[in-house]
Design a protein that fits this description.
heterotrimer, A: 407 residues, alpha+beta, Cytochrome-c3 Hydrogenase, chain B, three-stranded antiparallel sheet, 8 strands, B: 322 residues, mainly alpha, 0% strand, globular
């Protein structure tokens, strides 16, 4: 490993002959990926302290969810991690299904797995794009967007929206996939590994890239677990924790894939983990398309929970319509008292939903365990003793989205 | 008469350089655009050829915002220092045989002096803006320019030793008379150091730390807007052109070429200079950015020792061969 | 290990602390009193038969009018090496709205607890930096409590009012004057009236 650690002077705050230079990075800063604010205390360019401030995008999703039916909350989950909203939809749906005890048909499970992995690809492509741009490699940014665009077009084909998809519904998916979609996705997966190779030619063996990423933002396996890091950020430190393997959901038990792990826990290992994960996602999508079974796409025992689609349920007036839906939902026998915590592996890490139900058609309490929130909480630990330029690399490597962090 | 001729030359060179600056921005966007699978400017005129003019008009008519806490006089002066010093450096460049505004004997030193002065503009801009990001950008720039100035100066010592002169025209003549025709071959180490230092000196990728947009927003010009910002922009591009010309003169044999192009005495010069400007774009589209301490380490631990070794080698060989 | 088995073991070791054990859809919750919560969680974290090293989630729940003890702090624990999970729910009464912090066990609990403090007003004792996190400093009330109205009670946050004041003051320099005197008409309204 190249010598890369900066020589941090071991001076305490009291010993310093001068006030530390404070700088507010954000909330409007090109590299904080949204409205994240970091108050940095600097000694020269070395970080003495880093205090993240979040909440600029707080919309009270949890409070809103307590006043809406389960199906109505689903579109709100699009706005959490708006980069990979499909993954949030799936995570939310499996959590509600667990609470209500609904078994999803197999075809829907496969479709969900496909869209989840597509979301992972879009999320990782955007991560790679912005991470590389932050470190100064501008071209990777546009190369990644080229492929991301194809994926978003496919999202549009199956649900009509590119970003705020709301594709799943409780008990299945909203619409069946078309043959054209599957064909275009399959041909996409055929060339995608060569595209990853293309990104790698630009940065993977580049000396400047290695110098900027290796040995920067190191977190040991033990600390990473203690900090609550999840997803590729944790696996970069060598901990093999992937919700898809540990608590399999949807079609993940039926597909064959590996969980790439790093060893050193630096920015470079996290970068490698995500790159490998893209290969794995690609292979999962292929397996799912090949094995996609025929059958219904929605569970029969949850008909009233789906978004109103059936013609006979359409009511003209809005008010009647809303009350009608809620009434229908309250009639169902699925709602029990109790609480569940269900998590799913989204591109950023472990996205968990904790529901407390009191037997009505609305959640009594919904809590979202968002990976970005925990990852930003770990930033002070990661940034201390690094340089200003490394902060940018570290923020990029933990991969945060502020919509998900602030909820 | 003499004075009039000089004035005419100044006007010609100024116009040509300014047009080059305008179209350097255009071609930068086009070239990088095509490297990044997009089109670049397409809207203003045919394939966006009028884009630089539109940009100029936009910058000129934009509101000139000055921070209340800024040191106004210095804030006004900084972009002018940058631009004027960059433009002055053009004065000594011989574009072809007998054509230089001032054919002075210390041409090389003069260019160094002017490019160092430009860093004053950057430092003062960072200082007077009274903004933390600008300040950090200014500090980074001063440290970087000082370090790389040394490497660049030393890398050209070999050329001076071979040519025996600091006059840029004489350097070209000496190259034409030498057995290799260009100094690139005997001075390959010097050329390497010069090209790296050239990128650092003009604050371009991978050494664009003073204006690293992902770290320092826009570095020293964070607080500038409108025409003042455009002045910095122009200074940067003129700096690029000057450095490209210097590389052509010192290492690639200036205006000399494999054959004479009738009627266009500057043909080879321009062609070689364009290659270097293209290299700037190419590198920008390819490389990530260095970190501040790595940049310093590269300058002091690699480039300066290499340049010193080159001087030693050149001297030894020259004294042995005669 | 089965979750129910873990719950039974906790009950064996701390019979006075465990209030009840509940199960929903195969997920087991152990409801505890709050007094020895750190001791129990540390035991669960350190004991080689449990090794709950991953604090998946920590949040508060408000049972206003539903249960005798108003608040609960919920710890969702997971063991990465042993692959089992358990949910611990600590009861926090309204009149003594505080609980020991677990940041000493899991560093990641820091922000979870700040969030819980921010939205529920539950104090975490021995927390290194207990401030509001999602809401700005100076926010009144704790929004996720059930007695907090959904629309926020119709009151603006004081910081927002300050910003509006400032914008009004600065609008004299503004070309269009967004925050102008309401009696004055803007150009657009004037044009509309003329139409």
């Amino acid at each position: 490993m190249p010598e890369n650690k900066t020589d941090l002077k071991e001076t305490t705050r009291e010993e310093m002959a001068y006030e530390p230079y404070t700088i507010a990075m954000g909330p409007q800063h090109p590299a904080t990926h949204g409205v994240l604010k970091l108050d940095l205390e600097l000694d020269g360019e070395t970080i003495l302290d880093c205090k993240p401030t979040v909440g600029f995008l707080h919309r009270g999703v949890e409070k809103l969810a307590e006043n809406m039916s389960y199906a109505q909350t689903l579109p709100l989950t699009d706005r959490l991690d708006y980069i990979a909203s499909m993954a949030n939809n799936v995570a939310y749906s499996i959590a509600v299904e667990k609470l209500l005890g609904i078994e999803v048909p197999l075809r829907a499970k496969y479709i969900r797995t496909i869209v989840m992995e597509m979301a992972r690809l879009t999320g990782h492509l955007l991560w790679l794009a912005t991470h590389a741009l932050d470190i100064g490699a501008m071209t990777v940014f546009l190369y990644c967007f080229r492929e991301r665009e194809n994926l978003l077009d496919m999202f549009e084909e199956i649900c009509g929206a590119r970003l705020t998809t709301s594709y799943t519904c409780i008990g299945g998916v909203r619409q069946d996939v078309t043959g054209h979609f599957l064909e275009s996705l399959y041909s996409f997966t055929e060339d995608f590994p060569s595209k990853i190779a293309e990104y790698e030619t630009l940065i993977d063996k580049n000396r400047i890239w290695l110098k900027r990423t290796q040995g920067v933002g190191v977190v040991s396996a033990e600390d990473a677990v203690s900090l609550g890091l999840t997803g590729p950020t944790l696996r970069g430190s060598g901990v093999e924790y992937d919700v898809r393997k540990h608590m399999p959901y949807d079609a993940y038990p039926y597909v064959d894939f590996e969980v790439p792990v790093g060893s050193k826990g630096d920015v470079y290992d996290r970068y490698r983990c995500r790159m490998e994960e893209m290969h794995q996602s690609n292979s999962i999508i292929r397996q799912c398309i090949e094995a996609l079974p025929k059958g219904p796409i929605r569970a029969p025992d949850a008909p009233d929970l789906v978004m109103p689609y059936a013609r006979q349920k359409r009511v003209v007036a809005d008010a009647t319509f809303a009350s009608g839906v809620i009434k229908l939902m309250e009639d169902t026998e699925h709602f029990i008292e109790g609480d569940v915590y269900v998590s799913a592996e989204v591109p950023k890490g472990e996205l968990g939903f904790y529901f407390v139900s009191d037997g009505r058609g609305v959640p009594y309490r919904m809590h979202i365990r968002s990976p970005s929130y925990i990852h930003i909480g770990a930033l002070p630990f990661l940034c201390k003793g690094q340089m200003v330029a490394d902060v940018i690399a570290i923020i990029g490597s933990v991969d945060v989205v502020l919509g998900e962090c602030d909820r | 008469m003499e004075l009039l001729w000089i004035l005419i030359k100044i006007i010609i060179v100024f116009t040509v350089v300014m047009i080059h600056v305008m179209y350097a921005t255009y071609f930068e966007r086009k070239v990088i655009g095509h490297m990044q699978v997009r089109m670049g400017p397409m809207r203003v005129g045919w394939h966006g050829v009028l884009q630089p003019i539109a940009d100029g008009i936009k910058a000129f008519f934009k509101e000139d915002i000055i921070p209340t806490a800024a040191d106004k006089k210095v804030f006004y002066a900084a972009p002018l220092i940058c631009l004027i010093s960059a433009l002055s450096a053009v004065a000594v460049i011989p574009f072809f045989e007998t054509f230089a505004i001032a054919n002075i004997n210390i041409g090389l030193l003069y260019i160094f002096a002017m490019s160092s002065l430009a860093s004053y503009g950057v430092v003062l801009a960072g200082w007077s803006s009274n903004s933390k990001y600008s300040f950090l950008g200014g500090l980074r720039s001063s440290a970087q320019v000082i370090s790389y100035e040394i490497a660049m100066g030393l890398s050209l010592v070999g050329v001076m030793m071979l040519a025996g002169s600091l006059n840029l025209s004489d350097i070209v003549h000496a190259q034409m008379q030498s057995s290799y025709k260009i100094y690139l071959i005997p001075q390959i180490i010097g050329f390497f150091v010069f090209v790296v230092a050239m990128f650092a000196e003009t604050n371009r990728t991978p050494f664009d730390l003073p204006e690293a947009e992902s770290e320092l927003v826009a570095g020293y010009c964070t607080e500038y807007s409108g025409m003042r910002f455009a002045l910095f922009f122009m200074a940067e591009y003129i700096g690029m052109i000057v450095m490209s010309c210097l590389a052509v003169i010192c290492f690639l044999g200036g205006w000399s070429g494999p054959f004479e192009v009738p009627g266009i005495p500057f043909f080879w010069f321009i062609l070689k200079a364009y290659f270097f400007i293209f290299l700037y774009y190419w590198v920008r589209a390819t490389l990530p950015r260095y970190r501040y301490d790595q940049l310093m380490a590269l300058g002091w631990k690699v480039l300066i020792p290499l340049a010193l070794f080159n001087i030693l080698l050149t001297g030894t060989i020259k004294s042995l061969i005669g | 290990m089965e979750s129910l088995e873990i719950a039974k073991k906790i009950q064996e070791k701390y019979p006075d602390e465990v209030v009840s054990i509940s199960e929903t859809r195969g997920q087991v919750s152990v409801i505890l009193t709050k007094d020895r919560i750190v001791e129990i969680l540390r035991w669960l974290h350190d004991d080689p038969t449990f090794q709950f090293n991953h604090l998946a989630d920590l949040c508060g729940v408000d049972y206003l009018g539903k249960k005798e003890v108003r608040f609960e702090v919920v710890y969702n624990l997971y063991s990465i090496p042993l692959r089992h999970s358990i949910r611990i729910r600590a009861q926090v009464p309204e009149d003594d709205c505080s609980i020991e912090s677990v940041t000493g066990i899991w560093m990641g609990a820091n922000w979870h607890e700040r969030e819980c403090y921010d939205l529920f007003g539950i104090e975490f004792m021995n927390h290194p930096d207990l401030r509001r996190i999602l809401l700005p400093e100076g926010w009144e009330g704790h929004p996720l409590r059930k007695d907090y109205p959904l629309d926020g009670g119709g009151k603006n946050w004081s910081g927002y009012d300050e910003v509006v004041e400032k914008a009004k003051k600065l609008s004299q320099y503004d070309f269009y004057g967004i925050y102008q005197d309401p009696t004055k008409k803007t150009g657009l309204e004037d044009a509309r009236e003329q139409d």
